[in-house]
Amino acid sequence: MGIRSRTTLIAVLVVGVSVSLAMTALVLTARKSLIDQIASNADARAQDIALLAKAGSVPNPIPGRGEDLLVQVLDSRGTVVASSGSIEGQAPLVDVKIAPGASRTFTVGSLLESGEGGGSQGEGGADSGVSYLVAATGVSSPHGPMTVIVTSSLNPVQQMIDVIVPLLALGLPVIMVVVGLTVWTLTGRALRPVEAIRSEAEAISAASLGLRVPEPGTADEIGRLAETMNRMLDRLESSAAAQRRFVSDASHELKSPVAAIRTMVDVARRERPDDFAGFLNDLATEDARLGYLVDDLLVLTRFDEGSGGGDAVEVDVDDVLLGCVASCERSGGVGFDISGIHPVRLIAELRSVESLARNLVENAMRHAATTVWISSSVVDGAAVIIVSDDGAGIAPQDRERVFQRFVRLDESRVRDYGGTGLGLSVCRAVTHSMGGEIVVTEPQHAGATFLVRLPLGTLR
Q1: DSSP strand E in 64-108: where?
Q2: Which of 274, 320, 418, 450 has the fewest CB atoms within 10 Å, i.e. the most exposed one?
Q3: How would you classify residue 48: left for phi > 0, otherwise alpha for psi between -120 and 50, otherwise beta?
Q4: Are 15 and 179 in contact (CB under 8 A)?
Q5: For residues 146 and 214, what is the distance between their CA atoms, to the nearest angstrom?
Q6: Which helix (H) or strand (E) is 223 found in, with range?
Q7: Using alpha carbons only, what angle is made at residue 95 by residues 90 and 98, rounded to the nearest 5 degrees?
């Protein structure tokens, strides 16, 4: 069963049970109220007759109020000394004696003179299944103790029940049908936006992420659901677009060194280069460039998937930095100032720290005019690495953009510097995976200055 059917069924059942209980309570309350009213009238009539009997002036027959209340006055021997005109000359209606000053109200199934067996059908306080109410009062009269009996038929109570119960029994199904139709209609209207959202969401695929689910414009749960789904689709579309750009840029970057290697190999096949050593150096350079690009892509992919790498171990940051400097010095071109490198040890994944250091140092070396300054230290319980150069620097508006993938601030220098546009993206991915941060700060030596802060604890 769907939500609409379940909601309607539950509503009908709840209303049906509630109305049934309310109707039962109504019938019982009305019955009790009517019986109490009859008992009150009978008791009041008995008290009036008792006052007359106490004064010794009870008329016979006793003036009555029609057949609603039948009155008898019994002496101490149970003989009827006075009665209502309609039952004049009849024996006692009930066999009861009440002491002077006492009163009693009860019900009986039939009267002794009713022709229903000639005996009392029982006395007591239970009203169920009875047809007469009796109010009896004991009184002292000049002629001795007497008992005043007032009886009233309970047929009006049964007649009232016979009228109300069928009406309620007919009304209950009508109420349940009305409730069912109302809930079915209102639930359908309430779920209509959900069906529209579902239909539109089913049509959305990777090729149509620009579609959005309809928003009903309400501030209820369905409206918030539609808004949340559209925000999620916005994120998915942005992520898919970024992924497509990443694949496109990666393909373009991979194409350049592969094409260069293929060209050099084709030329060498046709004619052996005169400078074979130079040819091998150029080939090795393109191969290294291709290897660095692939490594950076793998690193970014690994961090995008949430797997930082291998196990965390103790890493001497100063040793890693000095190793990167030694490797870069062989390429020549710029000098390195390593006087600021101090011993720093942290718990991290070695390959991630090495990748961070290599990309920072190589980026500074590519853009430095003459010198690269490197320092490492422990500040406020964190490892701090600073890499500066004396190159062109980075404008303040570009200090965040440089960490995006395949972003180069000077596209005309791509081939001259040999960069891939992924190094700083790798640096940010590594630092974030370690719970640290990397920012471009105010330049210390006219060029760009990168500051990395890493916790000394374990990888997150």
Answers
A1: 69-74, 80-83, 103-108
A2: 274
A3: alpha
A4: yes
A5: 88
A6: helix 221-270
A7: 115
Residue 26 in contact with residue 168, Cβ under 8 Å? yes
The encoded tokens of residue 348 equal: 């991290």
According to DSSP, the residues that pair with 138 across neighbouring strands are: 147
- As a whole number of angstroms, the distance between CA 23 and CA 172 comes to 9
Cα 174 from Cα 206, distance rounded (Å): 51
- Tokens, residue 358: 């290599």
Give per-residue pLDDT as tens, 255-314.
777 888 888 888 888 887 777 788 788 788 778 777 777 777 777 777 766 665 567 889
> What is the tens place of the pLDDT at every residue in 297-321?
777 777 766 665 567 889 999 999 9
Contacts of 162 (CB under 8 A, 6+ apart): none
Distance CA 336, CA 365 (A): 9
Residues 11-47: b if buried by 16+ CB within 10 A, e if exposed: bbeebbeebeeebeeeeeeebeebbeebbebbbebbe
Cα 96 from chain centre: 70
Position with higher pLDDT, 407 vs 376: 376
Only one residue has tokens 């069912």, namely: 180
> Helices 317-329 and 350-367 meet at what angle, rounded to 10?
40
Beta pairing class for 437-441 and 449-455: antiparallel
Share of the chain above pLDDT 70, in %: 89
3-state DSSP call for residue 202?
helix
Separation between Cα atoms, residue 330 and residue 179, nearest integer Å: 87
pTM of the model: 0.49
Cβ-Cβ contacts under 8 Å for 81 (sequence gap 6 or more) = 58, 60, 73, 74, 75, 143, 146
Torsion angle of C-alpha atoms 348, 322, 253, 349, degrees rounded to 10: -10
> Could you give the angle at which helices 221-270 and 276-304 cross, rounded to 10 degrees?
170
Residue 159 CA from chain centroid, whole number: 54
Other residues' Cβ atoms within 10 Å of the Cβ of residue 260: 18
- Asked whether the bond before 443 is cis by omega within 30 degrees of 0, the reply is no
CA distances from 418 to 330, 335, 392, 428 (A): 16, 18, 17, 20
Q: Are residues 151 and 107 in contact, defined by beta-carbon separation less than 8 angstroms?
A: no
Pairwise CA distance, residues 455 & 347, whole Å: 8
- Express each pLDDT in 206-242 by its tens digit: 777 778 888 887 777 888 888 888 888 888 888 777 7
Q: How many residues appear in the chain?
A: 460
CA of residue 155 relative to chain centroid, distance:
58
